[in-house]
Amino acid sequence: MTAERADREKRAEKPEKGEGKKGEEEQAGGSGAVHWLFGDQLGPHFVDPARGGPHRDAPLLMIEARSVFGRRRFHRAKAHLILSAMRHRAAELGDRVRYVKADTYRDGLREAAGDAPVTVHHPTSHAARAFVDALPSVRVLPARGFLVTHDEFRIWADGRGTKHLRQEDFYRWVRQSHDLLMEGDRPAGRRWNLDHDNRQPPPKGADDLGVPAPYHPRESDIDAEVRADLDRWERDGDVVFVGEDGPRRFPATRREALAGLRRFVEHRLATFGAYEDAVLAKDTVMSHSLLSSSLNLGLLDPAECVERAEERWRSGDVPLNSAEGFVRQIAGWREYVWHVYWHFGTRYRESNTLRHHAPLPDWFTELSPAGTDANCLSHALRQVNETGWTHHIPRLMILGSFALQRGWEPGAVTDWFHRSFVDGYDWVMVPNVVGMSQYADGGRMTTKPYTSGGAYIDRMSDLCGPCRYKPTVRVGEDACPFTAGYWNLLHRHRDRFEHNARMSQAVRGLDRLRDLDELLAQERDRRD
Question: Which overall architecture, per CATH, does domain 150-215+251-344 show?
Fold first, then answer.
């Protein structure tokens, strides 16, 4: 361990300032306070007194509030994973925890704690934070599960002055301050960004990457119990789900999550970097880690993930571009998304700079792959329907790009991603969808809209060959909806995009389209 990393871990043991309720900055009080664990605070770092957690003798409380699943139409696999993880954690904690099943959190708190003092680590949504802040007996402890504290981010952001809060700048700062993939004061390999090495298309003619399969957990009696309860809730009309709930694919315990992490870094990380943006129809997970849900449930700490990846690189077992790509996802993007969610505030989710208001069609909200003839879109929807997951390119460059091109209301798109993905939480999806995917914030998070024509999908996947549409055709029966939709989007927002340095050249391409009028008429009538 380097001196810088040892110093960072020492600092992490100190309570974070500015997080306590009504200005309180001390750690949790004595054993008289009950400590409440939310369903995404399931790892050991949420009950560790040395890291600002509750008193070692504090009784623990977990509340399973059925109303959470009644407010929205969640993916059934997501509901199953969350409840399975909560009940597994309660079984591990044994007599120390009281597990309450109630209609609402308020009912559960009243039943389990009454007027007794309660502590809870910083929740992960604005709504949950406002709720606990309004409870006079509840005191909020510092956030856990992230590398950078709120105070540290605030200091970094304030130091930017009038500059934009760009993810690349933040990522470099995190690398330096946390001594990740560093050689002295320089980045390993003398480059911060290895994206150029990590954008390879899939191997020609290959159906898969030929790497060992990801870790697959085994279901327990708890999983069967959860599934029976979900069946009963649906029969009683208390909840309505979307998507399939097959055998659980994602870890629900700390042990399973560690097994998944070990499997990834030892057998799959080496090939992750080069093909992290590639898509193969028969290899839906490629070399991705499948650890996002474990991180977001609090089963894994991001520090242990990035440090294990770095260890594999330093031992010579994985190339630098793969280690850097994985570190960038967690220490760069995940951390950045968490902090801008809080930094931009509650009104950020309402951003709609492009004034997109079209509703999502039923076939999309129902996760119906038969609702579109576009093979890439149908493939992505099928995977979401069956698993509640796709990797970031189908999310961003197929599902999100299509929504942006069709002018769907960004708040509804955000809600769809939140409900439909097993790793989707408010703090995850608001910045990712409002800011990056839908460009609804007008560039506060990213410098350009992330969308493309069919040529990009054709280059990075094997999905276009079997499709009835042709990625090079923009008008007519064979016109690719992404290619035509891309040009239609540029035309619709030409006044805005032509002043964007990263978009101006593409916008000028509109003047070279002899069939632009025909294309625009075609897109006005498009139904899929």
Answer: Alpha Horseshoe (1.25)
